[in-house]
Amino acid sequence: MAQPFYLSGMIHPYPFTPPIRSNTLLTESEVSRSWTRLFTAGDPTEETFESAESLLDGLRPESPLRLRLSQELEELKKIHDAQVSA
Q1: What DSSP designation does 62 have?
Q2: Regions of the chain short of the pLDDT cut 50
Q3: How far is 11 from 31, CA to CA, in rounded Å?
């Protein structure tokens, strides 16, 4: 069973559930740490990609990190789809 991790004083199940806060955007540091945990936990699944999308939704729309991670997510999805169909 996965161990919980702590983020801003909140406990979150590791690795697939991003932190949830009502009406509050996540910091870029929080998103970056959670992103790394998502994609270093093993082969990504659809659930991993959904969690990554949720993390991106927690960033400001004009955030450079959001743009970079959005592009990275698209590339990871293409790689995953290629591996699954192979």
Answers
A1: T
A2: 1-14, 21-22
A3: 15
- Which helix (H) or strand (E) segment is 76 a member of? helix 64-85
What is this structure's pTM?
0.68
The full DSSP string for 30-72 is: HHHHHHHHHHHSSS--HHHHHHHHHHHHTS-TT-HHHHHHHHH
Q: Where exactly are the structural domains of the chain?
A: 5-85
* CA–CA separation, 15 and 35 (whole Å): 9
Residue 5 forms beta bridges with which residues?
A: 12
Q: Which two tokens stand for residue 82?
A: 């290629």
Q: Which residue from 85, 84, 15 is spatially nearest to 48, judged by alpha carbons?
A: 15
Residues 6+ apart with CB under 8 A from 72: none
Residue 15 to residue 40: CA distance in whole angstroms: 9
